[in-house]
Batch of 2 targets.
Target 1
Amino acid sequence: MKTKLLLFCLITTLSFAHEGVELGPNGGRILEFSKDETMHGEVIVKGDLFHIAVLDKNMKPVTMNEQTLTAVTGDRAAPQKLTVEKDAKGFVIPVVKAGEWLILQFKKTPETKAITARLEYNTAICEECSNAEWLCKCKPEAEKK
Ligand SMILES: [Zn+2]
């Protein structure tokens, strides 16, 4: 019950968050796994799985030990929990449906507060950079000119 309510609040508030696309050393999508840029997740797709590598402030792999991740997808009315597996580099979860949101909650240790990160798995191809929109390389700065 508590989890469901929390999730609802989370999705509601984050709908207004700014969406900036940052790409990592392996061409994956960078998500913020900390409040101060010291921990990141790099999301890549292999087959029908998302591989989420956990990276430090210099975008270098971290040793996986106590980190945990929960993942949900689907809409607010019916969030669907995804199975999260842990590997040497980070986490592995099933790919969500095109156009759906992936909402992650990362914890560095069981004692730390969960950090929420999310991405819209928009697989439409960007005309400018020819990448899928969720991996779009176009810099937001370019729009300001
Ligand atoms: Zn683009």
Target 2
Amino acid sequence: MTQTLVKIRALHYRVKEGDQTRLILDGVNLEVQAGESVALLGRSGSGKSTLLNLISGIDKPNDGSILIDNQEITRLGEPALTLFRRQHIGVIYQFFHLVPTLTVSENIALALELNHWAPRDIKTRVDSLLDQVGLSLLAKRFPDQLSGGEQQRVAIARALAHQPSLVLADEPTGNLDAQIGREVIALLNRLVTHEGVTLILVTHSQAVAQGANRILTLEQGQLAERAGDFAW
Ligand SMILES: Nc1ncnc2c1ncn2[C@@H]1O[C@H](COP(=O)(O)OP(=O)(O)O)[C@@H](O)[C@H]1O
Ligand SMILES: [Mg+2]
């Protein structure tokens, strides 16, 4: 039986530009089933990051509804939203955003500590993730002692550590060489499948998008479903 994890209805988002307002999202609708991976393509400035920020509750829409795990997140206040995000959502960014003063292990453990996991469970989980992303030997390094690809593997482990139901990745290969990017995406897809996590992945690359179950494009504030090959 499939279960709808994300249900977005009539989402509108406007930004002010001088004394004008511009509609970035103009009635976005989306349903994502638990366990699906969805790739989101769109031109630079089309609103992809905006949409992810609304789904993670970092930003508030002007209008519309966002249900995640049957929770209407647009109605949550800041403390409840922080808690919801910490427990249900993992995020992967283009520029990694690891905490520079924490080691690889500590970066991965952070979300677990915030969720009050027992120290023994944290160690087991971090060791398992380090193994899965192939970084066991680099556990004690700091982020600036890692390559970009290695940093992104740490960020993937961190995003999945607390067993979120939804992972949002915003151009995770945008700052990596093509070959390293392919390896990172293969790893991400493998881990997401292994952990049964739902993934929404923003990318510029049609090759990256082809690894997902579904491909959506964001154009003129609206989402469209794409099937097979399409011109882009
Ligand atoms: N807080 C803001 N104030 C003004 N303009 C914004 C704000 N946030 C985003 N924008 C504008 O919204 C548009 C969509 O941005 P973004 O979601 O980052 O696009 P994408 O991720 O697809 O490149 C861009 O034109 C950007 O300049
Ligand atoms: Mg963006």
